[in-house]
Amino acid sequence: MVPQQSQRSSCIGASTRRGVLRGLAATGLLAGVSGTAGAVADSRSRQQNDGTAQGEPAPFASIEFTNQSTDGTTVVVDSTVLSAGGFVTIHDLSLFEAKPLESVVGVSAYLDPGSHSDVSVQLFDVPGRTIDQQAIDEPMPLIAMPHADSNDNQTYEFVTSEGNEDAQYVQADLPVVDLGFVSPGDAPAGDQAQFASLDFENQSVTDSTVTVGEVVLSDGGFVVCHDARLFQGQAFESVVGVSAYLDPGSHTAVEVQLDDPSAITTVEFPPAPPLIPMPHRDTNGNQSYDFSTSQGQEDGPYVSAGQPVVDLGFVAGSDSSGS
Questions:
Q1: In what order do the strands lie in the sheet with 239-242?
Q2: 117: burial class by Cβ within 10 Å (0-12, 13-18, 19+)?
Q3: Which domains does the chain show, CATH number per domain?
């Protein structure tokens, strides 16, 4: 991600959304499965094999989706690169409940191969889905995911084909994703002098460590890695690793030691747990991460559009166990 300026269908319960919001607010962080999964995997395999069998590079994509305020019916993806063209889809958190089809709450128009910025995505109007909700009415996390146009008809058919066409772009054999918090209405006023950004990609855990590719912290601080319990409102319990103190400025290849990779909370889909890195400030200037021990009174997160700055990636090889 770069500095951030600037869900929900009937599939994920309102109680889950409220749990996220309650947990974040309380800590200052808020100012048909197996058959479908198999079809998705087969479609991804075809996507990767297209071209590579002829000696061409495999398709690739990147995406940047930052926190934002919205009118409730659209979101804007900051930027995306699609090597072979395709679409950007928006998912709610039911994606992690092995619902790659039912979690789709928005899809962009067809995008040509190449780089695109400020991609508008209409919410709650998805081919093949009937969604009761018409607009976002409270803050929520959403997941942006680029999809290929596997049959070259410039029509998004991932849902209508039950995952047999137009599968996700992948990196490290896992879907390319980004996470952002979306809030209805106008963005709250904030201290624009403080800003942070992250870039975290799918990867394997190596020696109990993950690597955040790029970090920018205007006032220094830490990178904190959360597991999926963050989405259940468990802001403290979800912390699974914290970086060393980082000086103000830009940093690359920031290593985060995980406390216990085998204890990272798993999800039903995809077959690797998500990690959510989040930059935190050093509010008391002691270069020690005190957010958890102070119950959120010190070292709060950097925020954008009134929500914590976050990224999302999937990690493999962690021997994770569900919880």
A1: 196-199, 209-217, 249-258, 239-242, 222-226, 274-280, 313-316, 203-204
A2: exposed
A3: 14-184 (no CATH), 196-316 (2.60.40)
Given the DSSP bridges, would you call strands 68-70 and 178-184 parallel, antiparallel or unpaired?
parallel
- In this model, does residue 112 exceed pLDDT 50? yes
- Over the stretch 256-291, which tens digit does the pLDDT of each residue have? 999 999 999 999 999 899 999 999 999 999 999 999
Q: Determine the residue type at 250.
A: S
Q: Are 228 and 98 in contact (CB under 8 A)?
A: no
Q: What is the pLDDT of residue 191?
A: 52
pLDDT digits (tens, 9 = 90+) for 86-103: 999 999 999 999 999 999
Binning the chain into helix, strand and coil, the percentages to the nearest 5 are 15, 35, 50
17-36: pLDDT as tens digits: 444 444 444 444 544 333 44
Q: How many residues does the chain have?
A: 323
Dihedral class, residue 208 (left if φ above 0, else alpha if ψ from -120 to 50, else beta): left
Q: Phi then psi for 233, rounded to 5 degrees?
A: 85, 10
